[in-house]
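User: We ran a pulldown and think these components assemble together. Before we commit to crystallization trials, I'd like a predicted model of the whole complex to look at. Sequences follow.
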Amino acid sequence: MRHARDPAAPHFAAVCFGRLQASCLLDAGEAESVLCAAAARAPGVDRSGLQARLMHVLSDSHDHWTARRDRAIARVRQAVAPLLAAWAPAAGVLRAAADAAGVDLEAGEAAAIAAGLAAAMLRHSA
Amino acid sequence: MNDVWAEWQRRRVLPLAAEPAALPDPAAIPPREWLYGTRLIRRFVSVLAAPGGVGKSALALGIAAALATGKGFLGERVHHSVPVWVLNLEDPLEELHRRVAALMRLHSLPREALAGRLYLHSGRTRRLTMAALDAQSAAVAHPDRTGVIDACLAVGIGLVVVDPFVKSHRLDENSNAQMDAAATAWAEVAEATGAAVLLVHHVRKGAAGDVDAARGAKSLTDAARAAFLLSVMTPEEAQSLSVPERERWRHVRLDDAKANLAPRPETARWFRLETVALGNFSQDYPHGDQVAAVTPWTPPSPFRGLSAADCNRALDLIAAGPGAGMAFSAHRTGRSGERWAGRVLVQHFSLDEGAAARVIAAWLRSGLLEEAPYHDGQQRKTRLGVRVIDARRPADKLPMGNET
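Assistant: Here's a predicted model for the assembly, 530 residues in total across the polymer chains.
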């Protein structure tokens, strides 16, 4: 929860960092050190209080995006599985994967999930 | 990731749907893409099977060179000359060079005719695994399939020769399912590249002439569009074709074991394994290498040296019979063997028994001789004998060059 006197930018950064962390694009230690540094520089606020709040926001954001990503991955797998079972054209499989992912996965992630499933199927049907 | 989708597109099974037959105009249907006689066809697998040591590698290399050069020096028509990739998975590259050199020397093939058209690969340099069991999943994996396809497409290979097939996979030869998987991997190479694939395969010793004798599961020969068998001349064939016993091993016959797309030929095609000196002398090896290379061989005509007048004289003797009231027999075995008509040719024209038998058989086939019952006055019983049909006799002035 943001205190009335907290600057907006570190809170926004904490939300972004949580998402990046969930996508494994940012290391947890790296995110925390940047946020701690921002809290230490913030003027006119209780800096240790701000730091604690930023850590909460980071953690909440990470959990939130992790859950969203898990649901998106499940959606992609569900959307792609019947198409792979029917040996649908590659373009159709990739389109369905991208549609199911929406904005919850990073660019290329849905295609990578579909390719992994296709590779497994190729191995097992050889 | 692109590799996965490329492979996916290749293996993709289209959804099943009953489609009405298009019934195109026959003239508009593209003809089958034969490459070599009726033995190799684009996008299909053919199998050349033979027991060990008969000369199948020499013949396979001969076919490869014929297709690469566009010269039908083995007696079969080359419909389209194509780049050829010989995957010899047994011998070192040096040995392949010797065999190609022997072939070039025997058939006077210039270096330029093969340069850039014949590609050689030795399994000693790099093993090839087209199919193997995945230890974890127990499924069949195809580690080199994509690589082979890509390599073929890169230089436009039109024929892939795999010698021997057994070295191209690591599966159980006695499992139909596994052999089918290995053969299918090659069929997929053929389909993906538009090339013909020739798999060289062993049969059990002494099982020549029987495609079912192909070692291991029958799936391989079933999966092939054409299968042919190479077998060494038998002692009986050598006798009937007047080939000396010491030369018999050099003569091999090729039979269609399965001809789905072509009519089964009535007669065998013969080849002779010639020994070619490479002339690569050295101080340690003053004679250099002698290497076998294959060349077509035609059995000598049994009529060789017989004029039409000779034939008519022989027919006169046959018509006269072996004695009063007796007729010659068509067969040289059994009780009637002593009355065999071929003895006339042996005694009066110095033919060997094999050639005489072929002449008599040719005359019977052409209707010049006919087998018919007659009354033997001495034996006082009805017997079978041959009689000469005079209307079919050759004119004396015409040469008797062939047997029909």
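The mean pLDDT of chain A is 89. That may be worth checking against your pulldown data before setting up trials.

User: Thanks, that helps.
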